[in-house]
Every structure is written in C-alpha cells, then in structure tokens.
Amino acid sequence: MTPPATSDTPPAGATAGRPDRLTVLIGADTFLPHVNGAARFAERLAAGLVARGHDVHVMAPSATHRAHGRFTEVIEGQPLTMHRLPSWRWYPHDWLTFVLPWMSKHHARRVLDEVKPDVVHIQSHIVIGRGLAREARKRGIPIVATNHVMAENIVDFTTLPPVLDKVVVKLAWDDAKRTLDMARAVTTPTRKAADFLEATIAIDGVVPVSCGIDASNYTPDLTPRDANRMVFVGRLTTEKQIDVVLHALARLDPALDVTFDIVGNGDQRRNLEQLVHQLGLDERVTFHGRTSDEELRAVLSRASVFVIASIAELQSIATMEAMASGLPIVAANAVALPHLVHDGENGYLFAPGDVDDLVGKLTAVLTATPEERLRMQQASLDGVKVHDMKRTLDTFEALYRGEPLPE
C-alpha cells in the first residue's frame, strides 16, 4: 500500500480539468436493501459526496438476480447513480445477496469503461471490491480501500466445520492483503481497528476515519424517564451476543421493571425469540424488526440506556446514533467499542460475555441519580461530536485527491 500523497501530488481529478468536482466510483458488497453498519456507511458517504457536488456512482449487488442494471436511486435524500450487478441469494444468511466472484472483474471492466472515474473507493476486499481494485489498477486509477470486516462477521455463514472456518479465514486475510496492497490508502473506522488490520495482514499506514454521523438527525431527551427501557439496534447475529443481554435482563432486580426494545432483524431472531420465552420475558421484550428512521429515532429518544454486547464492532454506527440521542451506553469491552464508551463517563464497559458484570453495569445506570444520569447523557452528546460526518467527508476528499489529511 502506498501512503496518502503529499501536497506535491496532483489532485486525482486535475488531469480531467476538474480539480473540484470528482467522479467517484464506490464498490460495495453490501448496500441497500441490506441493513448493516458497512452498508449504512457506504450510503451516507455516497450521499454526502453528492451533496458536495461530486459525481458519484455505486457498484452494488442487486436485490434479486433479475433486478440489475443502471438506475438512479434516492439514498439519504440524494440521487445516486447505481450500477446494480446480477446477484444471488446466500441462503445460509437471511437476506444477503452476492455477486458471483468469477464475474466481478467482468462487471468492473464494464462499469469502469462507462464511468471513467477519477478515483475508486472499495468498501470491502471480498467480491466487488476485489475485482474492481484489480481492474482499476490496470487503468492507473487511484484506489482507496475501507475495511469493515472482522473474522467473526464471516464464519457464521460459511456452513463449514469450525476447523475449516480457520482455514477459510486465513485464506481470506491473505487475499485481503493482496487487494489492499493495491490501494493508495487503506482506511478503517477507528485506531484500534487500524491496529488490528495492520497486525493481521502486515500492512502499514492504515488511516482511521470515523464512519461519521449527522447528530442533528437525532433528538436527545435529557428529561428524567418514567420507566426503565433498554434498547439495542443492529443485526440479530451471533457475534452481537444479544443472548447475553437477555440473560442479564432476566437477572435484573424485578423492582426495576425493565423492558428491552430490540430493533433490527437477522438470522438469530427466531432463536432469540425462543430464548425470551424460555426466560419468561415475553411481556418485557419487544422485537421491532426493521423500522423507519423516524421510528428508530423515537425508540432511541425514549430509552433509558443503550446496551450492546457485540464482540466484533470495528466502530458501531448504532452506538453513535444512541450517543447522538443522549443515551448512556453499556457496552462490551471489545474491539472498538471502548473508543466510543468511556467507562464511568458516558456509561460503562463490561467484560464480554460476563452476564453478572453486565447486570451490575446496567443496574448502575438504571439506579443513577438524575444528576448522574444527566452527566452521562451530556458525555454521550459531547463524545459523538468528534464523529461529525463533515470531518469524515473532508478526510475522504483529501484521500481521493492525494492531498494532506485534515487535522
């Protein structure tokens, strides 16, 4: 991987006579209608770039095998040029679609010839990003790569025995290095995630760039609560460890009368619903499924605490949304979550998988004095300011142009 360029490097779009307006081609293996953090980041990035006047094209899987082609889609309020590639359903997963790997270069050549981008930004090194990076390199087009992948995100859906999962993950990381080494710059959401990637595939100079959030879209309610409501937002998958939260809920003091709102869908929903019944929590847990943005903001605004037990977060947009909603956070002390949750300030960290520790930390939040609760809420609002989407867009524009990064 070559490091981000210095100020002596000409902007990516300068050769085309367009130093300000860039043509950016984003390659994303997951994008709407997929619902996950990586997809949300790609959507917000693309829309934010369009709002700044850039010509943005997105290569992404189609929702069904037949629904492919070039379309204009309104994403985050902005019109995006979408190149939907023929895709197939991955049946071990509840909604994932994927492009046939041996077709990725073919699709990349076609779209690159049509778009002629100033820069290519791949959102993964798996299928679309892998082929796109190789074809862009042949044409001398600068490549920026963002990594959102953790091993735990992959092995749940291989359907292979655990011993073979390890082999698959090793081969995947070896191939990831070959792809990421083609990039002008590699980014990932946090410094800890960057350290993880550098150590995993022996790559240097990974740039931490927050996924970013527009805090003005959320409505913090700093008034005292009339009930104790926990909330989680995200995919219902194994690495999220929502079962740990449910066991903790069952052990909380009944006098607290705590309820739990779960927003999102995933392959573990049925198992979690069964666990709720086994624990006798049917009247206290609500599965909302996928909601509108307005419904999500309403659930967050009325909650008492956001809880996340995940062990595979490279950042967690959902946690940032909760912070922007003025919520105290109780989170697993794993991967990048400690970058968002400062223990004793805007909430608490608990030992991953430790139900008793989680019970104690939840109890501390739910029994806090109004003054202590307000202090945690304000700390969340202050802490999310450094993840402002404007800063994220400024950084990627600099990377695209080969300019020095903003402070």
Automatic annotation (TrEMBL):
This is D-inositol 3-phosphate glycosyltransferase. Keywords: Glycosyltransferase, Transferase. InterPro entries: Glyco_trans_1, Glyco_trans_4-like_N, Glycosyltransferase_grp1. Residues 225-379 form the Glycosyl transferase family domain. Residues 35-216 form the Glycosyltransferase subfamily 4-like N-terminal domain. The keyword Metal-binding does not apply. It holds the Pfam family Glycos_transf_1. Coiled coil: none annotated.
